[in-house]
Amino acid sequence: MSYSPLPPPSQEALVHSQRLVNQLILAIKQSGGALPFTEFMTQALYTPGLGYYSAGLRKFGAKGDFITAPEISPLFSQGIAKQCQPFLTAFEQSVILEFGAGSGIMAAEILKELERLNCLPHQYLILEVSAELRQRQQTTLQTQIPKLFNRIHWLDRLPSQPISGAILANEVLDAMPIHRFRLDAETVSEFQVSYQEDRFVWQESPTTNQSLRIAVESLRHQLPVGYISEINLALPAWLQSVADSLLAGLVLLIDYGFPSREYYHPQRSHGTLMCHYQHYAHDDPLILVGLQDITAHVNFTAVAEAAMAAGLSVAGYTNQANFLLACGLIELLSTLDQNNMPYYLQQTQAVKTLILPSEMGELFKVMALTRNWDKPLLGFASDERIKL
């Protein structure tokens, strides 16, 4: 295969990828010649030992495939810590649970800031599916906050007993496997993946998935025939499991996405499916299998509806810039030592990346869901909210 103009993978990476390709070819054969894209995406990302998020590939930072906000500046995590503060002081055995903690840097910076604020959680739980990332997180946290390391525990699944405190998910929803569809004149077609002439190719056929058909048919009145997009049918079950894990407190979701009216805008006629490989973004998820991230933007209206159905309250929704500014981002920047001018200027530039509309400030959204909590939230105190 040719990946031009993307950087060519190493021979070791190609060997790794081929092992996953072989598994997918077998899955396609066992499915009768085509695999629904949601299953292809699941295996490409999460096959134990081989999938992108389950294997030992470096994903975050300058040497990885993309850079997340916690890697850009510690001020991002400090703002999140300030949002968590009232939830930690309200409960005697307060807990923070983080989904997919990446390199571990967000957990480290949150705990540093909470220690400064004198409101450390009783426990900091990390739910991580990747053994490699879990090891990297442990190294980061042992190095950066050795005194607090005994508060941190790793989980393979959600806790059996509900917690009180805060649940955090930064760039988690975008990596959930989605169904890809086309709205045809009289039916709904689902994208599947087959293997022909030594490569994976798209294949479409009328969907047999009743949930997918019903969900897409509800959009027919607003979309043109031939419209292609995605839908996350796993979202309600995931949010129900999150709600069941929270006795009282906050769920904070941070990701790139739109409300439904923008997500399914007639002009966004080919969806939001996107891949990330060595800091290149492209739209072909059928190449570099196991070596690249596969994502779709988040439909935050769907998140809100599923959250309310699960018994959570939507306590706030805004863009990342508004949220971070309300959490005191500029004040946090002003506390930095300006005698260390190179670092101060670096952080000033990082703040611009986090909040400018042309960078992360507008596309990234923040949604707060709560249970058994009726007080206002710091990060949503301004009037700069976005309609769902």
User: Radius of gyration in whole Å, from Cα?
Assistant: 21 Å
Quantity of strands, as a count: 16
SS-based structural class?
A: alpha/beta
Q: Which CATH architecture?
A: 3-Layer(aba) Sandwich
Helix content: 25-40%
Structurally, the number of domains stands at 1
Name the shape in a single word: globular
**What is the CATH topology descriptor?**
Rossmann fold
How can the largest sheet be summarized?
8 strands, mixed
Strand content: 15-25%
CATH class: Alpha Beta
Distance between the ends? 42 Å
Describe this structure in words.
The structure is a single chain. By secondary structure, this protein is of the alpha/beta class. The protein has one domain (11-380): Rossmann fold (3-Layer(aba) Sandwich), CATH 3.40.50. The chain contains 13 helices and 16 strands. The protein has helices at residues 11-30, 37-46, 69-72, 74-89, 105-116, 131-144, 210-217, 235-244, 260-263, 300-309, 320-326, 329-334, 341-355, and strands spanning 35-36, 95-99, 123-127, 152-155, 163-170, 179-183, 188-196, 199-206, 227-231, 246-258, 274-277, 280-282, 293-295, 298-299, 313-319, 364-371. The strands form three sheets. Strands 2, 3, 4, 5, 10, 14, 15 and 16 form an eight-stranded mixed β-sheet that branches. β7 and β8 (199-206) form a beta hairpin. α4 (74-89) packs across α5 and α8 (235-244) crosses α10 (300-309). The chain is globular and about 60 Å long. The N and C termini lie far apart (42 Å). The mean pLDDT is 94.
